[in-house]
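Dear support,

I submitted the protein below through the web form. The confirmation email said the job was done, but the results page showed an empty box. After a refresh the structure appeared. I'm attaching both so you can tell me whether what I see now is the final result or a partial one.
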Amino acid sequence: MLPDDVWELISNSYKYERRRCRKQFEEVCSRSSYRMIDYRNDRVLKGFVGFWDFGKWVVIEHLAVSNNQVFHETMSMLLKQLIEQVDKNVIIVAEVDILLAPEHYLLKSEYVSAGFIENPYVYIQPSYHKGCASYPQRIMSFPHSISYEQFKDLRSLLYRFIYGKN
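What the results page shows now:
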């Protein structure tokens, strides 16, 4: 079951078109390939990273922090924990907007600080809901960049398993 505080953080951190509804998200959380690392202080949620483990790829779906005053510390700790948990032969990827709003610059800079590399291929993130806009993005990867062939394979995997598209 999805804790209320995690759902509240997702709802406050992501626009409607960029997140599933709660029932869909609870279903995702029950899948064996989806994992979450949360950071709590005195049982209070400070942040979390939700990701898919597809064997050779680990795909960050959500990364959120509850308090902007400790954004950098919490974000770097979550990324560090994720990197430490993942096998060294696995590529970790995250989607970042091409047209960055001010808050997205901070997120992108955290990925860069953790060692992620921005790849040059344009990726379109579909909306989770019918009738909502899709978003042009780039894929950031760790520990190295990916080839165009890897990008095409990854895009196909993401569209199929995360967004339910063919």
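Response: this is the final, complete result; the empty box was a page-load delay. The chain has a mean pLDDT of 89.
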